[in-house]
């Protein structure tokens, strides 16, 4: 298979394979290496969705985990075993997984990293940064080569100065637009779950995400992907309205706003190659 990656030398590419409470996975790739940020989809779905982008699944080099919640790890074991690729996670995350539902077998190569300590997977530079979320040691990632970086920040209950600092350096950002606060309060969730979602370590509301976009609009960001939308407490329209308000009138021509879907993976986006962005082969 001629890989789409081979057609775009010196370019960082990314795609949303799935985003939401039924499974998360984001692909970030350069010409020589490709990583998955989270693997909450089944191995079969990962392979199918990566293939649709024109990339052979055996081009994947590693899986990076943001945290241990099921919607981010459900497909990790089978995917890592099938493709024989390492899985990167924090040491507390590895401890939490041990003995649990995702006790990775001996033949899976688990490697640990520390938040705020950058590392590499082949040519890809990875910067993990802490996010506020109710799991053991949750992180977001900036992944790329040089200044061509993709930021992934979902599953965080609130923002933090460091999160903004890193996302500002990313040309594309996948940011959580989880819920509309009024929909959560007026919705069917039990009170305890409402409080969890809305807490500082729960999930990011449209308004909170829009406030982050205000901080990003003077930076280098040119692609904002709204992700991890709640199916019961949000609508694509509400998320888009909030994002438009956050980006503001002036930056709207420069910054593209897109929805990261749960079941309909995106096409492959090549940073800095807007004019020749390709549709994926279906
Ligand atoms: Zn999640
Ligand atoms: Zn989570």
Q: How would you describe this structure to a colleague?
A:
With 282 residues, this protein is an alpha/beta fold. It has one domain (4-272): Metallo-beta-lactamase, Chain A (4-Layer Sandwich). 27% of the residues lie in helices and 24% in strands. The chain has helices spanning 43-52, 70-73, 76-83, 91-97, 161-167, 181-186, 191-198, 206-216, 236-251; strands at 13-18, 25-29, 34-37, 60-64, 87-90, 110-113, 119-121, 124-130, 139-145, 148-153, 172-176, 223-227, 256-259, 269-270. A hairpin with a 6-residue loop joins strand 1 and strand 2 (25-29). The longest helix is centred in the C-terminal third of the chain and has 16 residues, at 236-251. The radius of gyration is 17 Å and the shape is globular. The model is unreliable at 274-282 (pLDDT under 50). The structure holds zinc ion (2 copies).
């Amino acid at each position: 298979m001629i890989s789409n990656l081979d057609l775009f030398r010196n370019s960082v590419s990314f795609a949303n394979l799935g985003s939401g409470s039924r499974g998360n996975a984001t692909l970030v790739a350069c010409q020589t290496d490709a990583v998955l940020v989270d693997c909450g989809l089944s191995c079969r779905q990962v392979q199918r969705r990566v293939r649709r982008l024109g990339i052979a699944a055996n081009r994947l080099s590693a899986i990076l985990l943001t945290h241990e919640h099921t919607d981010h790890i459900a497909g990790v074991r089978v995917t890592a075993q099938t493709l024989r690729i390492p899985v990167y996670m924090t040491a507390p995350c590895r401890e939490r997984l041990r003995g649990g539902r995702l006790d990775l077998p001996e033949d899976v190569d688990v490697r640990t990293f520390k938040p705020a300590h950058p590392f590499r997977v082949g040519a890809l530079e990875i910067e993990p940064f802490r996010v506020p979320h109710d799991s053991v040691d949750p992180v977001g990632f900036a992944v790329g080569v040089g200044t061509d970086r993709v930021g992934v920040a979902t599953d965080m209950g609130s923002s933090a100065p460091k999160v903004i600092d890193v996302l500002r350096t990313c040309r594309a950002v996948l940011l959580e637009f989880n819920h509309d606060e009024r929909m959560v309060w007026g919705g069917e969730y039990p009170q305890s779950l409402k409080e969890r979602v809305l807490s500082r370590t729960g999930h990011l509301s449209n308004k909170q995400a829009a406030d982050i976009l205000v901080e990003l609009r003077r930076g280098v960001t040119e692609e904002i992907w709204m992700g991890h939308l709640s199916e019961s407490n949000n609508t694509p329209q509400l998320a888009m309205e909030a994002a438009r308000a956050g980006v503001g009138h002036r930056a709207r021509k420069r910054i593209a706003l897109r929805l990261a879907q749960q079941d309909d993976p995106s096409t492959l986006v090549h940073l800095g190659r807007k004019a020749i962005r390709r549709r994926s082969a279906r």
